[in-house]
Specification:
- The complex is a heterodimer of chains A (416) and B (399).
- Chain A folds into 2 domains: 105 residues, Rossmann fold, CATH 3.40.50.2300; 274 residues, Response regulator (Rossmann fold, 3-Layer(aba) Sandwich).
- Chain A has 11 helices and 17 strands.
- Chain A has a 7-stranded mixed β-sheet, with helices on both faces.
- In chain A, helix 2 packs across helix 10, helix 3 runs parallel beside helix 4 and helix 6 runs antiparallel to helix 11.
- The N and C termini of chain A lie far apart (58 Å).
- Chain B is built from 15 helices and 2 strands.
- The termini of chain B are far apart.
- The C terminus of chain B is likely disordered.
- Chain B has a two-stranded antiparallel ribbon with strand order 1-2.
- With 399 residues, chain B is mainly α.
- The chains are: A alpha/beta (416), B mainly alpha (399).
- At the A-B interface, helix 1, helix 2, strand 2, helix 3 and helix 4 of A face helix 2, helix 3, helix 4, helix 7 and helix 13 of B.
Chain lengths: 416, 399
């Protein structure tokens, strides 16, 4: 006992001495707080961190930004949010779906501070004026990434570089691809379905079909599980892999196996130079700038903000919230032109990602679907979402609610 | 030439490592003090180089991050209590040389069982009764999770380290499984059930802190003064001795692991029932492993463990804040800094157990021989000096 008391005392003495020596780091005043589930080692969180730094810099507030990483989806999120309020932050943003309930609680207790949350679903029904959700019509970006993947598959098919196992039958008219997903809910399902429909649209032009196997990891960041899921999909014959999970597990497994990869959240070209095709991601800079402007000028922030494709004409245009990275060396010839063409059609409305004539559910075309738009504890479907032959994704709220299991996509994890 | 050749043949290594006898309390503290100081200097310099900042500001931010505001102090105490709780749980098992590496899993099933009660019975039974259910469920679940490897160990001598370790993964899998059942959207996020949490007294930290304080006292008494506590030590020293004096080793192993798991389960109840109001695969926060260090550094003394777990949590929270202050966005960086500090602190135990004796300087062959003799003589003197020292220390202790 004595030992530890004196141990503690000597430690405290040492630290206070050191602290005394220090002429005290000047206390910064903070305006913007960012709470991240993981750190910049996660592709997902890095996308937010980079965007927030850019936005703060553009607004001349880079010294008033504080970023806290590694905050779990529990009471720690609430504690961190309150700590940021005590640091003086006027607007606090949290980046993970599971942060929402804790941000909402902090918002209710601190009406003078703005709390904004990515991917959440509750702001439009909770009516807490200083709590907002934000997302983007990322399904359009996924669809375009799928088009790039489709171009690559067609190229490989024509060049006869695909293996027997990459086809579902000896007729060689239907190709297998794979997808590593985090959790089996609307955000992920909407993402992979739009990606799949993008692939399908290109292959259909060549009279080819596509079957996509999906394996979930039930985690947002589990490098080992993501890697082994990708390896499993490859061994089952996937000609190309994409993923919606936040580590480098799947892309690095693809690079090791020499299987082309379509990434998410940002370019993985430097780690995967031979297999990287393209990545779609949400560009958060426009929202962050808007959020900061509103906070500083005392204006209300949109309760449920949803960004879309930008105004530019290049496929790499970064003016919007939905963006694509530069094509990697693995991309097929002519992909850039194709992307511009499809992008223009999406913007013009002549092509709709969730056009119900392009897919079937249990063999039939979907004519009506009640989606769970308003979050309640029983998860009751509440809102008709098929409007004029299109599933109206991100119209009723910003976060995705397309959670239909369509034909051609096989769930390996939950298949019985 | 002749001389130098001879020197080579009798050349001693640069230093010898030898076991210390009884080290004086003063010396032990001095070594630990030096280790902490060295740890702070090295981690400070490391951070200063990487972050291009002032190391003194780094130290200041560590303190600020741990105790800078009232809320941070409460959080520090709460996290200390929880970590201490898990350390208290593994101590009886470790004293018995049963390497329970399953703290994470045992805590997690405690969280899961507690959350299950909230999910299924919340609003259907009075809150007081619900809380009793939650606590019982958490404690029993934790106990079962430790009991399974204990039975296998007692009956079939299976390796308990691997067994308990693997039970962690099963627990995480179970949580993921139940989350997919409970959360129909499939997001894996179960929103906190605040209405069914243990009511707050002062704040959500107070009750967990009090529970762990009581538990610490109980564990101290149990290990030090109870017959069962004594049996644990005997089994840990030598199973054969235990058998010889008529202790039923199997019974002691199983009973102790039930206690170990039950305490983990209790911590799980506090985490889900009093703090988070929900469960996720990460709710255990890796405490099952950190607690091993906490317990070991304190030589399994529950009262000293309060100090070591405070120290560990202080560092973790402080370094996290300091990293954030310097704009670090990688979660690996704070881990590296805390690891450097732990490396020194754990490493210094080596110098408490052993000492280095450096080779004496030699001028010529003959002189060298003389110095060796001298050194040997000196050694014996030192040894006697030291025994004087420890005798003094003992006297001081008595005083």
């Amino acid at each position: 006992m004595k030992k530890i008391v004196s141990l503690a005392l000597s430690a405290m003495l040492a630290t206070t001495m050191v602290a005394g020596l220090a002429s005290c780091g000047e206390d910064k005043t903070y305006t913007i707080g960012l709470i991240c589930l993981h750190g910049s080692e996660s592709t997902y969180d890095k996308n937010f961190i980079d965007a927030m730094k850019t936005a703060a810099k553009n607004k001349g507030l880079e010294d008033e930004l504080t970023i806290v990483t590694g905050i779990p989806e529990g009471e720690e999120c609430y504690d961190t949010a309150i700590d940021l309020v005590e640091k003086g932050c006027k607007v606090i943003f949290a980046d993970s779906f599971g942060h929402e309930a804790f941000m909402l609680q902090a918002a209710e207790e601190n009406p003078d501070v703005q709390f904004c949350h990515a991917t959440g679903t509750m702001a439009h029904t909770e009516n807490v004026s200083n709590f907002q959700n934000a997302f983007a019509s990322i399904y359009e970006g996924r669809y375009l990434a799928g088009v790039a993947a489709g171009m690559k598959i067609v190229e490989m098919h024509k060049a006869n570089t695909l293996k027997e196992s990459n086809y579902t039958s000896t007729a060689k008219d239907n190709i297998k691809i794979g997808y590593v997903g985090a959790w089996p809910y609307a955000e992920v399902k909407s993402g992979y379905t739009s990606y799949y429909l993008g692939v399908k649209s290109v292959l259909a032009e060549e009279n080819l079909g596509v079957t996509m196997e999906v394996q979930f990891t039930n985690s947002w960041y589990d490098e080992a599980a993501e890697r082994s899921a990708a390896q499993n999909l490859i061994s089952r014959g996937a000609a190309l892999i994409s993923q919606h999970a936040d580590s480098m597990g799947a892309p690095s497994a693809c690079e090791a196996a020499g299987v082309p990869n379509v990434s998410y959240n940002g370019s993985t070209a430097s780690a995967c130079p031979n297999t990287y095709i393209i990545s779609s991601r949400i560009n958060w800079v426009p929202y962050f700038e808007y959020m900061i402007d509103c906070t500083i000028n005392g204006k209300e922030i949109d309760t449920d903000w949803c960004g879309g494709l930008g105004t530019g004409s290049e496929y790499t245009d970064e003016s919007g919230a939905v963006v694509l990275t530069e094509l990697g060396s693995a991309a097929a010839a002519g992909t850039a032109e194709k992307l511009v063409e499809v992008r223009n059609k999406l913007k013009a409305g002549t092509v709709n990602v969730f056009d119900t004539t392009t897919f079937t559910v249990g063999g039939v075309i979907l004519t009506t679907y009640l989606a769970d738009v308003n979050t309640d504890s029983a998860f009751t479907p509440d809102t008709e979402s098929i409007i004029d032959g299109v599933f109206a994704e991100s119209k009723h709220r910003s976060a995705p609610y397309f959670d239909v299991n369509i034909d051609g996509i096989v769930d390996l994890t939950n298949a019985s | 030439m002749n001389n130098s050749e001879r020197e080579k043949t009798v050349r001693e290594p640069l230093f010898h490592i030898e076991k210390r006898g009884d080290i004086s309390r003063k010396k032990g503290l001095l070594i630990r003090g030096i280790a902490i100081l060295a740890a702070l200097i090295v981690s400070g310099v490391f951070s200063a180089i990487l972050l291009k900042g002032n190391p003194f500001v780094f130290y200041e931010k560590i303190i600020d991050g741990a105790v800078g505001t009232e809320r941070r102090i409460w959080n520090l105490l709460r996290e200390t209590a929880l970590l201490l709780g898990v350390a208290l749980a593994i101590v009886p098992a470790f004293k018995m040389k049963f390497w329970n590496l399953g703290g994470n899993g045992q805590v997690l099933v405690g969280c899961l069982a507690t959350t299950a009660c909230m999910f299924y019975f919340g609003g259907k039974v009075p809150l007081g009764l619900l809380i009793v259910f939650m606590m019982l469920a958490g404690v029993i679940a934790g106990a079962i999770w430790a009991l399974i490897p204990a039975i296998f160990k007692a009956q079939w001598k299976t390796n308990e380290s691997l067994f308990t370790l693997m039970m962690n993964y099963i627990a995480e899998g179970l949580v993921a499984f139940f989350l997919t059942i409970w959360v129909k959207t499939g997001s894996g996020v179960l929103n906190p059930m605040r209405d069914y949490k243990v009511p707050e007294v002062i704040n959500s930290s107070f009750i967990p802190i009090i529970v762990i304080v009581l538990l610490t006292a109980a564990m101290y008494i149990y290990l030090k003064y109870s017959k069962q506590g004594y049996e644990i030590s005997v089994v840990g020293e030598s199973e054969n001795t235990a058998r010889y004096v008529g202790i039923n080793v199997k019974k002691v192993v199983i009973r102790t692991l039930i206690i170990s798991g039950a305490i983990c389960g209790l911590v799980g109840f506090l985490l889900s029932g009093a703090i988070h109001g929900t469960v996720s695969k990460a709710t255990h926060g890796g405490m099952g492993f950190t607690a091993i260090m906490v317990a070991w550094l304190a030589k399994f003394n529950p009262l000293i463990m309060a100090g070591t777990s405070f120290f560990v949590v202080f560092l973790e929270r402080g370094v996290a804040e300091a990293s954030s202050y310097f704009g670090v966005t990688n979660t690996a960086f704070p881990d590296i800094v805390t690891s450097i500090i732990f490396f020194f602190i754990i490493g210094c135990e080596f110098f408490i157990q052993y000492r280095l004796r450096f080779r004496a300087k030699k001028k010529s062959g003959i002189a060298a021989e003389k110095t060796v003799v001298k050194a040997e003589k000196k050694d014996s003197v030192e040894v006697s000096e030291e025994s004087d020292d420890s005798a003094k220390a003992k006297k001081e202790d008595k005083a």
